Structure formats: structure tokens, C-alpha cells
Amino acid sequence: MIETKSLGIVETQYARPPGELELESGEKLGPLTLAYETYGSLNADRTNAILVFHALSGDAHAAGYHEGDDSPGWWDGMIGPGKAFDTDKYFVICSNVIGGCKGSTGPSSENPQTGRPYGLDFPIITIKDMVNAQKKLVDSLGIDKLLSVAGGSMGGMQALQWAVSYPSRVLSAIPIATTARHSPQQIAFNEVGRQAIMADPNWNNGDYYGGTPPTRGLSVARMVGHITYMSDASMGEKFGRRFKDRLENEKFEPDFEVEGYLQYRGDNFVKRFDANSYLYITKALDYFDLHNGKGLNQVLKGVTARFLVMAFKSDWLYPAYQSLEIVKACKLAGVDATYCELNSQYGHDAFLLEIEEQSYLVKHFLNSVSENNGNGKHE
Predict the structure, then answer these.
(1) Is the terminal CB of the chain with fewer CB neighbours within 10 Å at N or C?
(2) Beta-carbon count within 10 A of 204 CB
(3) CB–CB of 126/288 below 8 Å?
(4) What is the value of pTM for the model shown?
(5) pLDDT for 323-349, tens place per residue?
(6) How far, in whole angstroms, is CA 205 from its chain's centroid?
(7) Would you say the CATH fold of 186-283 matches that of 13-182+290-372?
(8) If DSSP codes are grouped into helix, strand and coil, which group holds residue 264?
């Protein structure tokens, strides 16, 4: 049943911007398809648009329900009438990143040169490439300036990149549980996931479309990733050392509830995600380095957006010190930045689960940004 204040039924739309996208690698990608959804209404002067970004395994379906679905979009608690991203006030946009597998051009898309899925012929992409593709979408919607850009995890990286790449187009940024560049440990976890996929014999050097996909490898990759999304405290509370029911004499079958849970998460993930997309997107995460060979404060000197940076105490995948580094660089660069560290036990997943505190902070921040830019009233 659809909850009160839900957006109700929403539909994914598809943009096909003209021309090709020039990538950081020097290669070109096109024609492009960008899957996206919008919530709320664009006001007459087109000043109330907010672009939100999904994390590694997300997609354009951020809020509301698709026809026939029991579960809403991945940030439904934050987007809708009266919610943090209030669709009675704001026009919210979310698009699936290029390289993804939920409607935007990615490795599973048809390569126009061969008529077959790209597979490993798909070019390497970066967070900046994703942002440049999103700019084409925003341009196609006739929006010159975004009231805000916001997202958690990989979404936070995109928010940071938008503020740096297009300073005149962004009034504010809300990077949550994110970093300006991956640490060796973060890269290491992603590499284990990639190796699990590539070790699956069904991966077939990326050419498995039309055959049996590497579900076992992708499932293991997701299991590894999911461990990093939770915290020791949240896993202890959710599972403890409780045993699950199983048949006798089954060696090395899941004994503990946490084992069964991880297998369940992995098995469900392979039903909705493409293994090659996982390879490409995790590589984009690892390549991301906002410093670009400079001090981060130097990179942020041209930024005019106001920042609300949020982190979570129990997040050990994107620990709070990485968010504090962003805030410190903002201060040194003269960028208006507010920092909030929330006391959640949910680990990295807190940006999807800690709705109440995030909503309070985001609402007040967006109200302030709107008022300071003469955008207090919305149509």
C-alpha cells in the first residue's frame, strides 16, 4: 500500500541528447540514452530544480512507485510532498549514470558499430564523464541553474564534481557520506569485487550477453560490498551470532543468520544488475580524484555553491574524516560550508536509512539557499 505523502505512480523517461559525449579518456560515446525521472513541477522561471544522484547500485528511480511495484524508489523517504526534497516546492531530477544498466547507455547497451552489446568494447568512464552526460540532460530540460545537487556515496562524488565542473550552474551542494578521492582500502574492496566477477567462468571476458551471466561472481562481489555498507554494531543488532535453520549434514552451508542474509542479498542483486556495469562503475569510483594533482582547496577556489556536508560516525567505508577534509578545503578556499556528523549505528547505509535527521538538516539548508537567492516562492 502506498504511504501517505507518497508521490504515487511515477514513470522513467528517456533523453537522447544529440551528438556524442567526449570522455576524459579521449574516446567518444554516442548516441547516448539517459534514463531519468522527475518529481514535482518546474516553476515559471526554472529556478527550483534539484539534481539528486544515486550510489553504485542505484538508478533513476529515486522516489514514488512504478506500476505494480511493492517497494518505492531508493530515496523515497527523502523525496516527496513535505519531505526533505519537498516536491511541493522543488523540481527534483534523478538520472541513471552512463555505464549503468537501468536505461542509460552502458556495457549492456547496443554498440551501434556492431549491433551487439558493447561488453568490454564500452569505453572506460569516470565520475566527471557521468556529470558531463547529466549536464546534457539538464540542458535538454531548459534549466540554466540548479538550486542544489545532492547525493550519498558515489552520489556525493557527483555532487562535488558538479560544483567544481560547472560552478556557475550550481547554487548549492549536499555531498553525504562521501570522499574527494578513494583511499587504498576503498580501492582494495572494489578490486576484490571485480576479481570475483572476472574469476567466474561465465564472465567470458565480458561477452556473456545472450548466454549465462556471471551470477556467482557478481553475487560474491555484492556480498563483499554489503559488508562494508553496514557497521559492526548494526550487524550485531540485526544478526548477533544466531544460527539459522538448515538440514543436517550439509557442510559449509550457511550456519549463521548473517551468512544467509549475505547470500540472499547477493542472489537478489544479480537479478537487477549487470556484472560489466559493476566493473565499470567501481573503476570510475576508484579513478575519482577531485584533487586533480593539486591541493583540494585550490580546486575549490572557483566554486560558488554553498555546501552542506554530512557524515555518519559509524561509517567505516567512507569515514567522517574524509568529509571533514572536504569541509576544511572549503573553508580554506572561502567556500561557505556547513558540516554535520550524525550519530547513527547503520554504517555507510545510514544515508539511505537515517531519514529524520537528514530531512531536518536538508530542509533548513534548502530553505536558506532559496531565500538567499530570491527563490523563496515556488510555482
Answers:
(1) N
(2) 14
(3) yes
(4) 0.94
(5) 999 999 999 999 999 999 999 999 999
(6) 26
(7) no
(8) helix
Dihedral, CA atoms, 362, 179, 151, 124, nearest 10 degrees?
Answer: 170
Please give the angle made by the CA atoms of 275, 125 and 165, to the nearest 5 degrees. Answer: 140
For 196, the 3-state DSSP assignment is helix
186-283 carries CATH number 1.10.600.10: no
Give the C-alpha separation, 220 to 127, whole Å. Answer: 25
Please give the CATH number for the structural domain made up of 13-182+290-372: 3.40.50.1820
What are the grid coordinates assigned to 351, written together? 544515508
Q: How far apart are CA 257 and CA 269, in angstroms?
A: 18
Per the CB < 8 A criterion, the answer to whether 129 and 155 are in contact is no
- With H, G, I as helix, E, B as strand and everything else as coil, classify residue 121: helix
Q: Which of 351, 330, 51, 339 is nearest to 177 (CA)?
A: 351
Is the pLDDT at 234 greater than 90? The verdict is no
Return the top range by mean pLDDT from 4-8, 201-205, 230-234.
201-205
The domain spans of the chain are: 13-182+290-372, 186-283
Instruction: Say how far apart CA 352 and CA 184 lie, in whole Å.
Output: 25
Taking the C-alpha atoms of residue 223 and residue 263, their distance in angstroms, rounded to an integer, is 7
Instruction: Yes or no: say if 120 and 207 are a contact pair by the CB < 8 Å rule.
Output: yes
Of how many residues is the chain composed? 379
d(CA 33, CA 35): 7
